[in-house]
Write a structure and sequence with these properties.
Number of domains: 1
Oligomer: single chain
Number of strands: 3
Distance between the termini: 47 Å
Strand order of the largest sheet: 1-2-3
Radius of gyration: 19 Å
Strand content: 5-15%
Structural class: alpha+beta
Order of helices and strands: HHEEEHH
Shape: extended
Length: 104
């Protein structure tokens, strides 16, 4: 569906009328987004202070419902960082069925 010509037209159009996407303009309620890459070894990066003991993605690009997934420190494990509103966290904590499932 995408051709070189369509892509060039899109770029030229964007240059004349740029649109920056925001989470409000892209996502609807009751949705979530994941990010990160299993190819990036976050625990293997050493900036001279030694290997990380924990990894966080920082404050950028945060919004309610965003989930960032990293390969874990131990082989085969996964680290999950969830950006959730206080109201959603309270609702999750108040949901007995959900808490029974996650605390098993």
């Amino acid at each position: 569906m995408h051709t070189k010509e369509k892509f060039r037209n899109y770029l030229e159009s964007w240059r004349e009328n740029p649109k920056i996407l925001t989470p409000d303009g892209v996502f609807t309620s009751n949705s979530f987004v994941t990010s990160s890459s299993p190819r990036y070894n976050v625990y293997g990066t050493d900036f001279g202070w030694g290997r990380p003991i924990a990894v966080r993605s920082g404050p950028g690009n945060k919004f309610d419902g965003k989930i960032t997934i990293f390969p874990g420190a131990k082989q085969g494990s996964v680290d999950i960082e969830a950006c959730l509103s206080p109201e959603l966290l309270q609702a999750m904590g108040d949901d007995a069925e959900f808490m029974d499932t996650v605390l098993c």
